Task: structure prediction
Amino acid sequence: MFNYTFYWSIVWEKFPELLQGARITLEVTILSMIFGTALALPLSLWRRAREGVGHAFATGWVELARNTPALFQVYMVYFGLGSLHIHLPSYFAMVAALTFNNAGYLAETFRGGLNSVPPQQLSAARSLGMSAFSAYAYVVFPQVFQVVFFPYVNQLNWALLNSSLGMIIGLRELTGATQAAQSESFRTFEFFIVAACIYYVMAKAIETLAQLASWRLFGR
Amino acid sequence: MIEIENVRKSFGTLEVLKGINLSIEKGEVLCLIGGSGSGKSTLLQCINGLQSIQGGNIIVDGTNVHARDTNLNTLRQKLGIVFQQYNAFPHLTALENVALAPRVVKKQSRRDALDLAREHLDYVGLGSKADMKPSGLSGGQQQRLAIARALAMKPAYMLFDEVTSALDPELVGEVLDTLRKLKESGMTMIVVTHDVAFARESGDRVAFFDQGVICELGPARQVINDPKEERTRQFLQRVLH
Amino acid sequence: MQFQLPYSGLQWSDLPYVLLGVWNTLILTLAAATFGTLIGVVIGWLRQDVPVARVVLAPYVDVTRSVPLIIQFILVNSSFALAGIPLEPLWVGVIVLSLYMGVLTSELVRAGLGAVRFQLKWASRSLGMSYWQELRYVSAPLALRTFFPGWIGTVIALTKDTALVSVVGYVELLRASQVLINRTNEALLVLAGTGLFYFAICYPISLYSRRLERTFQHD
Ligand SMILES: Nc1ncnc2c1ncn2[C@@H]1O[C@H](COP(=O)(O)OP(=O)(O)OP(=O)(O)O)[C@@H](O)[C@H]1O
Ligand SMILES: [Mg+2]
Result:
């Protein structure tokens, strides 16, 4: 630090590469959240059933996803499947691993949300003559939605941060792209500071949008 | 003696106490009555130094509560207070609830503090509940526990803020009995209450609060049976009928 | 010993290396959990009770939570290198993970202290207790009940996050197993063993924490 001069211009030259990386980061994050949500819905219902194959399967998934490192999950998809001769490109491996992770966490979030609605709410709705479908759609689901909203946004932020693991399997998402961009000049510090700022902005943007949406939707 | 001189208190722009003057003699029971939001609880909190004031003085045995150099922790040992909500420490048994302050504030030995606590639990009729956690006690028992806890500090004054309002009707009696017993022992008390009958029977004087001022102050029987002020009359009519 | 699993390149002589990885994972977790908890308790209390601290600490809290840990490791590593005092990977891990654990812990401390009703504090103060006596005998014990289950969850998260310190060259378990994979081409087998190890640590603890949470709720 004493005789080190920071050298930023080289970072600006490569800035488009970082932005390209940020795009991939967002893609991977959003795709894995969409697939993760789609899988978490049945998983959470199976978890609520007290027994059966579905329950065992969902429990196994949830506990594995939550009790092993995300990086391990990435390795499993990328290297582990590789030894079964299933070679996924790092992009798909990353989406798959994050989907597995998100689904595990979101299933628990959804289960908590469903449990937070008292069963009387459903019977009250049914007693007013609603069909099971409308009772869920108009009474149960809106309440669950409100309970899971912020935990869901949290998971989205987690996924964003976790997508940085892509670097380790050679994916050029933001972290990987930064790693690659700094490899010629070895200006590691400068490059990663800029990457950190981009992550910060993305995370804050998600947080702000979520807050705005929450005011709009729930008035709080 | 507690002297309250021209006390003003505001929350932001809302003036809650608008110049209160009162003095409470040793051995006296003063009851405060008045409508919701008139500032009774706030006054008790100010006497205890739990709230700051914006004007006037509160003087307890010659010590100005709100002066900069007053040691509130010492002063508060003189002023027991019991609140409307149950405030027993949920992680401690009844006995430990009472023994805590004597131990940590007065630095009594564990043994002495526990003996003292047992004595005070007996006094409020909770001797058999000593080892129960508050969650196992009824509302009335929790309020009596709070009274025992305050008494164990051997205060010179006791302040009660609607200690029966949160209770089921059948539990009110046991708490009021404790207050009566305390009055008999000569304790100086300020009692905020909605229970006009209690104020008439047990109060020496009654002060009627209305919108941050004392509207009427006088001997308990006179204020309640024969109020001089129109607003006091209206209030009493509302609560008595 | 030349024991070999059938068709596998794994050998008993690989065991010390794996054990080194296990050991490194454990000491890193232990160190970061200890320092992180100490940091977290102090800043959690500051953030709850000292308004100025809330503002001053906000950037630290914010950045720690919105920048990927990998990047935090790389940045700490390279800033010490630039300053001319290169740091052992273990210490890079300890610094970053302690600060990170500190933030997570501080949230729990805040939530715990914030959940203590102010009337209970008033009751304590009205008995003549000082601020510190009230904190020590009333607020802290009450906060501890909500804090503890969450804290255990954080330690689990920390255990898992130690895997990331491999990016600055720390040979923790996952890194050790990757080296083995490269040599033996037994990815699935080695990874399964590794995963089992993490799972065997984290799962029982998380079960325990869930049970605690339930008992405290009923109390
Ligand atoms: N901490 C506070 N912040 C802002 N306003 C407050 C606060 N505490 C009390 N107030 C307001 O001060 C006024 C007086 O409140 P106080 O609790 O002293 O009334 P009270 O006479 O005890 O009424 P009640 O019979 O309902 O207990 C009320 O309008 C109340 O809303
Ligand atoms: Mg009141």
Notes: Chains B and A do not touch (no CB pair under 8 Å). Chain B is about 40% helix and 25% strand.
